[in-house]
Amino acid sequence: MLLATQLQRVFILKDKGQEIRLSDPEPKWSTEAVLHFYAPTYPILTTAKISAPAIRDDAVEYRFETVMGTKG
User: Fold this and answer.
1) Domain that holds residue 47
2) Which of 13, 30, 31, 39 is the most buried (most CB within 10 A)?
3) Measured in whole angstroms, how far is the alpha carbon of residue 21 from the centre of its chain?
4) Count of H helices and E strands in the chain?
5) Are residues 11 and 48 in contact, defined by beta-carbon separation less than 8 angstroms?
6) 3 assigned to some structural domain
7) DSSP code of residue 29
8) Residue 14 counted as domain residue
9) Average pLDDT in the chain
10) Which stretches within 16-64 are classed as H helix?
11) In a 3-state reduction of DSSP, which class is residue 54?
């Protein structure tokens, strides 16, 4: 028998050289809605983009990527 399960979403933010793993506040929300949910807590997210999902360790990982604070 084949059993299908939905993978958990995990959002990753890199801030000051550290990776911060953020849990999914509401699985029904779009990735944009999650970005806006965390933006008041992490202001760096106001200019962030969402990367394509990657499956790792039985979870779907989305990365919040920003160029703010980099030179060049």
Assistant:
1) 8-66
2) 13
3) 8
4) 1, 5
5) no
6) no
7) S
8) yes
9) 90
10) 31-38
11) strand
Give mean pLDDT, residues 51-65: 94
Q: Provide the number of structural domains found in the chain.
A: 1
How far, in Å, CA of 39 to CA of 48, rounded? 9
Residue with tokens 């997210």: 45
Question: What values do phi and psi take at 66, rounded to 5?
Answer: -135, 150
> Whole-model pTM?
0.82
Is position 2 within any domain? no
In a domain, 72, yes or no: no
Q: Are 33 and 62 in contact (CB under 8 A)?
A: no
Q: Write down how long the chain is.
A: 72
At residue 5 the predicted structure's pLDDT band, cuts being 50, 70 and 90, is confident
